[in-house]
Amino acid sequence: MPYWEKSRHLDRRGFLHARGAILRAVREWFHAQGFVEVEPNLIVPSPGAETHIDAVSADGGYLHTSPEFVMKRLIAAGEDKIFYLGKCWRKGESGPLHSPEFTMIEWYRAGAPYEHIMDDCVEIVRVAARTAQAAMLSWRDKSCDPFTAAERISVRDAFAELCPIPMPSDPDAFSAALVQYVEPGLGDGALTMLTEHPISEAALARPCPHDSSVAERFELYACGVELANGFGELTDPIEQRRRLIEAMDEKEKRYGARWPIDEDFLAALAHMPPTSGVAMGFDRLVMLAAGARHINDVLWTPR
Q1: Can you give the pLDDT at residue 303?
Q2: Cβ(190)–Cβ(144) under 8 Å?
Q3: Where are the domains of the chain?
Q4: Which of 33, 85, 130, 269 has the most CB atoms less than 10 A away?
Q5: For 6-298, CATH number?
Q6: Element (H, E) at 177
Q7: How much is the pTM?
């Protein structure tokens, strides 16, 4: 049934109107905090550092999978508090929580520790919940109170608590165990920050000062759903180049494709001050705040 069929639209209309209200409220929150909204290019020469993400080719480049590289250039140029609220694309991602074209909130604070960005995430989730008049976030059989204190747990401790096997060192086995055993238990009852990811799982994050084997990377979970992924940003261009090449070598080995190294991004990185940043899935945020059943419930024109 097409999305424009009246009965289907009526079934989704409440979720869509909640989306509009949350969109306005989130923008107002950022402006009240002194952030500047930026409009980065949507077509980029290299879409990111992720081995397993596929990008959509466009006009000699790619539709961005995230505005991260462009926004970091703007921090290097002298901006200190910026946000983006707009479209991103990831080829082949579809399902109840995924759409190949989706909306991202991404923001950066120069000079701020990544714990500050965690606090931002909690406040934005609360803005969405208040706007949707939701006392609880919900997804399937789980619920989460966004107004109680958020929990923080390291990856190492989460595996020890939730996974029946030791935390794997192999990236594929690590990801499989994370999805199967750890993620479903996160954000159940209260928002959960999963912190201190292995450095091998954080290509764009700086090492933690107290333990160089783990990174200043966190993910925010509610109802077992990942809502955000944030970093204390790596600003060493030499180390960043090494990690990007390593990721692209692995992409080529697995998928027979690689993205070009974004040399202009690396040049800008040398001028970037210590910064923290995060990307949050706006569609998922609306889903959980409005009690939607599928990501297509909150997309005005789903595919």
Answers
A1: 86
A2: yes
A3: 6-298
A4: 269
A5: 3.30.930.10
A6: helix 171-177
A7: 0.96
